[in-house]
Design a protein that fits this description.
The chain is an alpha+beta fold and about 100 residues long. The protein has a three-stranded antiparallel sheet with strand order 1-4-5. A hairpin with a 5-residue loop joins strand 4 and strand 5. The longest helix is centred in the C-terminal third of the chain and has 19 residues. The N and C termini lie far apart (about 40 Å). The mean pLDDT is about 95. It binds zinc ion (ZN). Zinc ion (ZN) binds next to helix 1. Zinc ion binds next to helix 1.
């Protein structure tokens, strides 16, 4: 997907456990719209509009958020998010030896 853009979100929400290579080994539940419509350019230079639902819709939202500097933990409550960041810091320190 080149220059992807979500053009619409469905009204129905879903809660899915998400993880991310940017925050290894930690998984949290996030609520997101169950359906999205995404517009992008494919590898042949064609403009494509695709509707996605369920897990694929979650993946698209998660990955497109990265393009805007947003991580899935940004959707957690401040308390939970702070806890994740603490755990992540501990992991990073352990990994650094
Ligand atoms: Zn990610």
């Amino acid at each position: 997907m080149i220059n992807p853009e979500i053009t619409s979100f469905g009204d129905q929400m879903q809660v899915t456990e998400e993880g991310c290579l940017s925050i290894p080994e930690l998984y949290y539940e996030v609520e997101r719209p169950n359906d999205v419509t995404v517009k992008y350019t494919d590898l042949d230079g064609q403009e494509v509009t695709k509707e996605a639902e369920g897990k694929l819709a979650v993946c698209i939202q998660h990955e497109l958020d990265h393009l805007d500097g947003v991580l899935y933990i940004d959707y957690l409550s401040r308390l939970k998010r702070d806890r994740v960041i603490k755990k992540f810091d501990k992991q990073a320190k352990r990994a650094a030896g």
